[in-house]
Specification:
One of its GO terms (molecular function) is metal ion binding. With about 450 residues, the protein is α/β, with parallel strands linked by helices. Helix content is about 35%, strand content about 15%. The strands form 2 sheets. Strands 3-2-1-10-11-12 form a 6-stranded mixed sheet. A 6-stranded mixed sheet has the order 4-5-6-7-9-8. β1, α2 and β2 form a beta-alpha-beta unit. The chain binds zinc ion (2 copies).
Length: about 450
């Protein structure tokens, strides 16, 4: 009996610590264009066709890089998620449902109708999975002008999402377009309405805290910390600058500062931060005052392949993303990016959705913690870094074949590592020695100089 007891005690002490791996999907920026292949202007292939672009001779069954998504591409992306991982712990859906067309072609009713169609599609494909959505800057009419108060769209969309969200979350959503949900004991999700901070939202610029979201977030994160909960933040527009468009900042400067301060204050509670909007595949690292990588933001690429008018950005292949996380610590462990090559898809009866890369395998890092992401970005700085070449290809979801020169690379690295606008400006400035590439180049010169001096000393001896 004593022996049995001893074995039980020993087993309970030394039982193997199993990593409880869970997974969840992020899908974003569907930008549904119902006019694909039936545009108002017969000289185009869709109403969202990239301005000033030449109309291609063939539109393509599954979509075109100059247009937002036809329904069949959206449907295919959601059913690809289902066939790859039909039982995720949950799904996050981070907004931008409407096409890039003038406001005159849209209406409040149409926004609600499109959100309903996409909500129904995700529900039908994943009847037993909870979807946690967020609104994007295109999910309002007129686009971007999200008012920090209740309105018809918050009310109608709140009702649509009541199939996934509890009553109190729906009520909060109807007030300001944001909410929180306890996903399970120990893991809380916060869906933010970051459209309020976007410089295109002209209704919020003069408000200190639009819809009281910052104050609400601070209380919520303080309580989460007290209750030993970890928090995943989801939303649409990211803080910081667009790594693919030098100097392009999304937030009003004061909101960028406030957002960064709010996140850094509670960095130990926030174990996942998932945004979108840029349509590109990237991430951001947040550092504490001592320069320690403390928090990160994952930026998920879009389903729409639409070529933006920003000159250095271009188009992307449609992507869907699966995260792997540890169900006990709530730490994100890996990112598995799936995509379909649109050119190839258009030669086939059905698109082929394949794994593009797994972050830990492609870059040989143990996980996707802020520390590991920081060590990865350090490798980008060396001349001809193969990791950077890979990252840059994935940045466009393997669509772009163009080169990234030194200015482009600096903008990429500064966009990832400097979310604070002032620090970003210093980082990208050609006249400063703190530019990451310049710093790397200087180190190489210093090393050569030291070696040369040593060889002179040795040869003299
Ligand atoms: Zn978008
Ligand atoms: Zn957006």
């Amino acid at each position: 009996m004593e022996k049995v007891l001893l074995i039980v005690v020993l087993f309970s002490l030394f039982k193997p610590v199993l990593l409880e791996k869970g997974s969840f999907w992020q899908v974003t920026d569907f930008h549904y264009d119902k006019t694909y292949q039936s545009p108002t202007d017969p000289g185009k292939i869709c109403n969202s066709q990239t301005p000033f672009s030449q109309t291609p001779s063939h539109a393509g069954k599954w979509g075109n890089y100059l247009c937002d998504s036809p329904w069949r591409l959206i449907n295919s992306s959601v059913y690809a998620m289902k066939s790859i991982e039909p039982n995720p712990d949950f799904i996050i859906w981070t907004g931008d449902d409407m096409p890039h067309v003038p406001n005159s072609q849209l209406s409040t009713e149409e926004v609600i109708e499109t959100v309903k169609n996409l909500t129904d599609l995700l529900s039908a494909a994943f009847p037993n999975t909870t979807v946690y959505p967020a609104l994007g800057n295109h999910d309002y009419h007129p686009k971007h002008l999200m008012p920090p108060k209740p309105n018809d769209i918050y009310r109608a969309v709140g009702n649509l999402w009541s199939r996934w969200l509890p009553h109190d979350a729906v009520n909060t959503f109807k007030e300001g377009g944001f909410y929180t949900v306890l996903i399970k004991p120990g893991l809380r999700l916060v869906s933010l309405n970051t459209v309020y901070y976007y410089t295109n939202d002209k209704l919020t610029e003069s408000i200190a805290d639009p819809a009281g979201q910052f104050e609400w977030l601070d209380v919520l994160l303080t309580n989460a910390s007290r209750n030993n909960e970890k928090v995943f933040i989801i939303g649409h527009v990211p803080p910081g600058a667009f790594e693919r468009a030098p100097g392009k900042k999304w937030f009003y400067p004061k909101f960028n500062k406030d957002y960064l301060a709010a996140i850094m204050k509670h960095a130990d509670v926030i174990t996942g931060h998932f945004l979108a909007h840029q349509h590109c595949d990237s991430f951001k690292i947040l550092y504490d005052c001592k320069g320690i990588p403390t928090s990160s933001i994952f930026l998920c690429p879009a389903v729409t392949p639409w070529k933006t008018v920003l000159p250095t950005v271009g188009y992307n292949n449609p992507g869907i993303r699966l995260y792997k996380y540890d169900r006990s610590t709530m730490n994100v462990k890996d990112v598995w990016q799936y995509f379909t090559n649109l050119t190839l898809a258009n030669t086939m009866s059905e698109p082929d959705w394949v794994l593009e890369y797994k972050v830990t395998e492609a870059f040989r890092i143990p996980d996707v913690s802020p520390k590991s992401l920081h060590s990865l970005v350090e490798t980008f700085k060396t001349q001809g870094s193969s990791n950077f070449v890979k990252y840059y290809l994935y940045n466009s979801v393997s669509a772009g074949g163009e080169q990234c020169d030194e200015e482009c690379k600096t903008a990429q690295i500064c966009g990832i590592t400097e979310v604070d606008f002032d620090k970003y400006d210093v980082c990208v400035s050609p006249s400063t020695s703190s530019s990451p590439l310049k710093a790397a180049t200087v180190s190489v010169y210093v090393a050569i100089l030291v070696l040369w001096s040593l060889s002179v000393i040795i040869s003299k001896n």
